[in-house]
């Protein structure tokens, strides 16, 4: 609702393609979820967690935040004030990400091994993708018959529906409060927190927009070179920090820190191989993120109606995605990770490249539906294998925080480039853009033989050997 559906909404309102590309940077927020993930590991959600526990408590708080942000997006659905549109899109991204942090930590705790993660990830993604497809398809179909306000209100109501189900569930065995008292205090605390998040987002956004305007950036600016430079900065910083991290003992303050400790632990355990792992995860999903950013504007440009887009996003995308997730879960559980990751990358690239064919083919319903089916099948397969791979990298001591960091970093490059997708499309066209998207995904295959041999360092091992970096 703050990405694919929003880009379609903006395109229908005639917003410049470069500005639409800039809105893809809203999705950068989940990339930085490691900044507040330790809070969800260390502290309970006010009110809710007293009865329902830490994980469910945070999920309930996040659901209320999602509902209020969606109402804000409905109230600004005419897009006459793009800063207001951006404000509620960012707050929606924040609450969606908060929910993901809590859910991912819960999932990894439930299934710590690769064989267990395969089916659990498939089940998780079936629900996740069903909701995503239902929202995308439902919003387009409702907007075709009413308007975007009703579309966002309807999806807001659907997003709220699980809240009373959670509220009706039994509490934790060691619950520290009653159901109704915990519910009431949680709702009040959620309202206050949601208001504070919105105000803080507005203030930060105002400063950011003023700074960008002062720098002279507009829809005609070529920002791609700047974005690529920014993408390299994390790798450069990590390369300088790794030697010191590798020498830290068990009592080092950075390793014991409740905030930084989970992240320092990743680099301490994997050493210099961390750079190869981060390079691989940064490339693996670039094509799918870029395709998601401009696929809907592409369909709109080719003249497909909201009804056709709604069918493609729903009746076509859902079964294709579910099939991809199912096969991806089976592959992740039965195959070695190397071949599974390679298969996912190739199929995902084909799903990106099919849009080149769509661009050059006269508009027809079956062309759109066939393209979406292949794209969503590849996305589902690659995404499932990738989630299992990331889950196997985390230390069971910090499942939520470390998965938040790895999954966030995995989409840093992709989402930075997505923000420049509009200017890239202006330079190379839709066909060149989607050719590039698939090519980047295939490039990640080169790193698979290296990253699948990476082995974690034993606890407080002092000797650094090739075996401790890349495995036996």
From TrEMBL:
Topology of this chain in the membrane: Multi-pass membrane protein
PANTHER family: MAJOR FACILITATOR SUPERFAMILY DOMAIN-CONTAINING PROTEIN 3, SOLUTE CARRIER FAMILY 33 ACETYL-COA TRANSPORTER -RELATED
Organism: Tsuneonella suprasediminis
Keyword Aminoacyl-tRNA synthetase: no
Keyword terms of this UniProt record: Membrane, Transmembrane, Transmembrane helix, Transport
InterPro entries in alphabetical order: AmpG_permease/AT-1, MFS_trans_sf
TM region positions: 17-36, 57-76, 150-168, 180-206, 226-245, 266-286, 309-333, 340-360, 366-391, 403-421, 433-451
Superkingdom as given in the UniProt entry: Bacteria
Keyword Chloroplast in record: no
Coiled coil regions, renumbered to chain: none
Subcellular location: Membrane
Listed GO CC annotations: membrane
Protein name per its UniProtKB record: Permease
